[in-house]
Each structure stands twice: as structure tokens, then as C-alpha cells.
Amino acid sequence: MLKGLKPMTAHNEMHAPEVKAAPDQGDLTAAFEEFMTSFEAFKEANDEKLSQLERRGADPVTVEKVERISRALDTQKQAIDGLALKKVRPTLGREGGTSFADLERKQAFDAYMRSGDERSLRALEEKSLSYGSGPDGGYLVPDETEAAIGARLADLSPIRSIASVRQVSSAVLKKPFAVSGPSVGWVAETAARPETAASTLDELQFPTAELYAMPAATAALLDDSVIDLDQWIASEVETAFAEQEGAAFVNGNGVNKPKGFLNYTQVDDTGWSWGKVGYTLTGVSGELPATDSSDVLVDLVYALKAGYRQNASWVMNRKTQATLRKLKDADGNYMWQPPASPGSRAMLMGFPLVEAEDMPDIGADTTPIAFGDFRRFYLIVDRMGVRVLRDPYSAKPYVLFYTTKRVGGGIQDFEAAKLLKFGTA
User: Fold this and answer.
1) Which end of the chain is more exposed for a tag (fewer CB within 10 A), N or C?
2) What is the pTM of this model?
């Protein structure tokens, strides 16, 4: 555990209305140095365990030591990521100052949040012919607050940080794609050009669904003029939104939520076709092969076309990462490498590794590892506008703020990523 650091939890992220100062760069550097020291200790202990296995069998004390250091590495990495996120927390405000219209809206929104006075907001939205009126279920937050929520979600939500994100103003994004490419051919410079066959087009649809959070505030908090309520509402909902999004982008069934990439039909990559997600096999049910374990990872990497490998990432949860951390290549080098700097990602076989806790654990016939270019693989659709409805009645004496945004998601290029299935078929 890092000295002087408390692990980030949903509790202390969700219930801290005051805007805390960014961590000192020295704290982040010291934490990173301690993490690197732990990794060296892990390699030394794991090498000792492997040496014992070759001779007579691993000492239980050594095995426990390896697992303990591995767990400490996970904890330290989470703490470093937390420090890095807090350091880059976006401020509420725009470069070059705020226009009078923006300031007027911010003041009107602040009055609505503190006292429920919606007259100024109603007048502003009637003047702009906005659809964000009270009868529609609340009022739109100021643009800079929405931008702050979006920026933090990109940092907190692992899939959002690597996927494509598109903003829309409608409820559904419809994206055409070519099932078959156009007919092409070679011709002489002066020869006639025959008409080419038209492409066969199909359409992908990405409907948006409502995601909500309901932070509560006391009267004392709302009366405190020092507290920036825009910043407070952003910090309260960001973690709740990120957790729900993360689960949906991986495992969502597409009913009133995005469709997760593991919820599509999965097939052996040798029989892959458009509309399905291909996988390669470990050849052992629920485990890596006993010998040449790293070969299955090499096979997964090269199952992906070269054009997708250039920007590819690994996606797996913490437990799976701990298993792969012990693997070595044919030259005896560890395949997992720690981040090069605070806030960056660990590397596996030269590709960045993204930790997504909603990925399944290693088990029989599970697909706990994904590899691909997620920017081209998965599309996240955000409908513009975050809405807040003030509710002073349902949980008296607390005031609830029913905060909603609309988000959708799904696979847009089925060739851009592959899965590793821990099974035989």
C-alpha cells in the first residue's frame, strides 16, 4: 500500500463536494518510484518461484509472497491512476473568458440549484427555443459543466478512453456501411471505362438510452456560496456514470442501454463473418496451456489484420492481468511491462493494456481478453445535453438532483478486434 495514500473508492469520489487541490507532482513521482520498486521485487520473487518449480516444487511461502506483491502492485497502480486523474481534473470554465450569455446562464442555473428558482432558466430557454424545459424533465446544465463531465468520463471509463465517441442531437445514430466494396479493375489509358457495380450498403443503428444519477445535497451545502455547484454536480455524477457505462459497453444487452461488445455473437475466427466477433482458443478449458503459455497471446495478436494492430490495445480485468504478469517470452523476459511514466498504461507485448473490471475472469469457455483497435471497433454515441431536475420533496430534508444523460454504443467494425477464449471449441 502506498505510504500516506488512501485508495480511491466510489465513496470518497461521490461525496466530496469541495474541489480539492491537485496533488503535488512530487507525490505522484514518489508513488511511481515506489511502484517500480515493487515491480522489481515481484520479478525477483517470481523468478525464485520458477526456479523452485524446476528443482523440487515451489515453496508455499514463496508462492504467497508472489501473490502478495502482485496484489500490492494492483493497489499501487490504482492509487497512481487516482493521483494522475485528480491532477488533470478539468476546470469549469473556458479559455479566453466567459461570454455574457454563458455567465447569465450559469447564474440562472446556480439559482435553480440553490433555491429552485427556475424563472431565469425558463426565460433563457424560451428565448433560445431550447427543448431543455422543465416539463421535459429538468434543465440543461451549462455547456462548461457538460464538457467537464464528458472529460472526466473519458478518464474514468476504460472503454470510453479508447473507443470512438460521437455526439448527436437525435435519439438514434444511423451509420451506413458497405457490405461489399465497389467493383474495380485495370484499364488502358485510352480504353473505355465500363460502369462499375454499385456497393451493397447496410445500416448500423446506435440508439441512445437514458443514464441517470441522483446525488443528494443538504440545505447547508446549497446555502454555502463558496461551493461551486457546477463543479459539485460534475464530481458527484461522474463516477456513477462511468461505472454504469463501463459495464454496459462490455456486457450490455442493448435493451435500454448500450450493447456491449461481448454480447454479440462470438465465433471461432476461422469461421468469422461480418456481424460476429471472432475469437482464438487457448486449447485448454479455463486455463492457459501448461507449456508455451505465451504462444496463445501471439496467436491472438496475429489473428488481427496488420492495419488494426498499429493502434491496438489489450482489454482485460485486474485478475487476468495478474495472471499474465507472470508470463515470460522465449528469451526469459517478462511480457508485461509497467507504465513508462505516472498516468500512462502498462504494456503487454509492446501494446498498451487497458484495465476494464467488467471483463470476465478467466474460466471455462469465457473470453476475458480482448485485443484490437477499439477506436475503429466500438462506437459510443452521446446525445448532447446533460439534464438536471431538482427534487426537494422525495427525501426531505435532503434535496435530490435527478441528473440524466443519453448514451448509446455498439460495434461499428467487426474486424477491428478479436477475443481469446479459454476453451477448446
Assistant:
1) C
2) 0.72
